[in-house]
Amino acid sequence: MDNILDGLNTEQLQAVTATEGFYRVIAGAGSGKTRALSHRFAYLVSEIGALPSGILCVTFTNKAAAEMKKRIRALTGDNDTGYISTFHSFCVSVLQEDISAVQYPKSFLVLDNADIDAMLKLIYEERGLTLRDMTFGKARDMIEMRKLVKDPEYYELMIAMTPEALQEKYLNAAAADDIIFWGYLYQEKKCFGLDYNDLIKYVLHIFDIDAAIRLKWQQRLEYIMIDEFQDIDALQYRLMRVLCDYHKNLFIVGDPDQTIYTWRGASVRYLLEFDKEFSNVRTIMMMRNYRSTPQIVAAANALIAANKIRVDKDLIPTLPDGAPVVYHHARTAGEEALWIAHEIKDLADRGAPLRDITILYRAHYLSRTLEEVFLREELPYTIFSGVQFFSRMEIKDALSYLRLVSLRDDLSFLRVANVPKRNLGQRRMKFLQDYAVQNSCTLYAALERTVDDDIFKNTKAKRLLALVERFSALVSELPVSELLSKLLDESGYEALLRTEGSQERLDNLAELKQSVHDFEINCGEESTLESYLAHVALMTAGDAESGKNAVKLMTVHTAKGLEFPYVFLCGLMEGVFPSKKVLTREGMEEERRLCFVAFTRAEKRLCLTDAEGRNLDGSYRYPSRFIFNVDRALLTYTGELDPRLVSDTRLMIESNEKMLELTAAGPSFGPGDRVVHSIMGSGEIVDIDRDKNAYLVKFDSIPTPRKISMRARLERAPSQ
Ligand code: ATP
Ligand code: MG
Fold first, then answer.
1. Are 536 and 584 in a shared domain?
2. 421 and 510 inside one domain
3. Which residues are involved in binding ATP (predicted)?
4. pLDDT band at residue 451, thresholds of 50, 70 and 90?
5. Model pTM score
């Protein structure tokens, strides 16, 4: 193909054609990093003759992976696109080939949060725990932490211990967090489940213990490329280092100004210090922006310039002038949504397809008002909400049927054994659970063994067993899409939805079938039920996106790496964006980078909006400092702001910035220090809570220790 090198600038050409060694591209938003990456892939395949299966191309989301596959297919005309995937998805591929190294079966299960919650629910019920003992969110964090601390013994433990041994630990545990931790490991092991973090850790562990497997993957992956490198975390970095250690061909691209996942453990350091870690690193810089109008680029440059911890660099626009960046201040959230709806209708009247319009916000809950107004205004929209599609009831149910047939695991059994009703209600489930615990078997096996018991008279238990048997035999014969359709039909699940008259749910099932079909086309021979189930747990909303002509709604995090002709960024209020959770100067800079990511998604038009009103805690909402970070001359306000609102906002922001400076200094006291508080009197520092930026202080006059913000005025007690 001759168009691979067309439409590339000098730096991109260099990045695409320099194929050997360590390369780093540090470049601004919309400067063509991802484009360089996909053209490089095509160049390797079409010009060098490298095999796609020898190239690993890591993207940040599944959606980005799908888009890159499309681009590369168009460039090479080849359907084989090798490993273009997220780190997690790549790890699933490794495990599908090599998980036997840790004595796990290929039918291991990838667990998403909903699966983990279902396991927790089981444990809580069994052991009489309630959410007051620990919320599921906290429990997940706790498990994650304990697994980390136990690293590396954790694997040995998980791999060596039988389900029975884990069960014993669980049954003997007394403290709530021990019960939850061991109960979870037991559940995980019983179904050979792996959560997201396990995926990478298991791969690293297998590489550690089995040099032959490691070498096989190292030799196989002749070229490794990584997009969005500014948001790589320690585990991913370790994996990448191992993988490139044989051929030593590594090509990474990133933009330090778009680091938005440090809260999840990512670090921009890996990008900035890349040249110190590897030898002969060549660095390519690109600053010209090909995505957005000069107006949008100017606003984005002004915004990010307010960050102090950064290398100064401005994006240089290349496109012709466009519409001004607009700022609209609304009196209420409803009014804000209505203004956006009208603007959208106006754009549509002037010929903009709705699918070209995207609304971005800081957090999911902000979509509620928009949805209400859009429904009323009859504006079609699609929400991209990370987990939404694949965590819908009907989708989970359908996938559970597939899993039950393939794995006969407890999670799926619990979900669908009695949907549609088979008279297997709570009492009979409890009977099965007790039997399963006593005999250390799965619920399905329990039912198989006890189905002739009186308790299952007048139930459809036998029919359920027959259904699973029959379909298990079909797994290797039918394509997944057909299996799914038949299963939904013969299980009576689809009929159930039909009698319930829920068209939306049926539509979603149709969408799911479509996504299975797409998967088969994408993966060809590899598209077994096992691989579908393993990958589906990693999928998110956007992956099953329909091509319908509707406005898109999503969080800024979801929009990372994407571009849209028309962007509305709404909810730009203090306490919302920047989020009120920000307590440090670094945190504030990350919020500003996130806002920068939002600005730089827009191609033709960018509109910023905010709404007055009150937060849940009663505090008043002011326009975001991010609006004031952009020179007034670069924005077109739809109306003048009330001067009092402006001065109040300024005061509020100033005092907040002062607070951030104070906390930036870190704790001034340590445990054991004697302090004096102007109101509470003297006391002693017991502990420091760095997450909350607070001290735990035992005041002499109060019996219990109290958390006191580091912002509070504490003086060192005069020594006696
Ligand atoms: P981000 O930081 O947001 O991920 P990016 O650097 O990956 O951005 P791309 O998505 O690769 O940028 O490119 C942005 C837009 O500019 C795309 O529409 C792309 O097709 C276009 N583009 C990239 N390079 C060129 C070029 N040399 N000539 C014309 N258009 C280009
Ligand atoms: Mg990109």
1. no
2. yes
3. 27-34
4. very high
5. 0.81
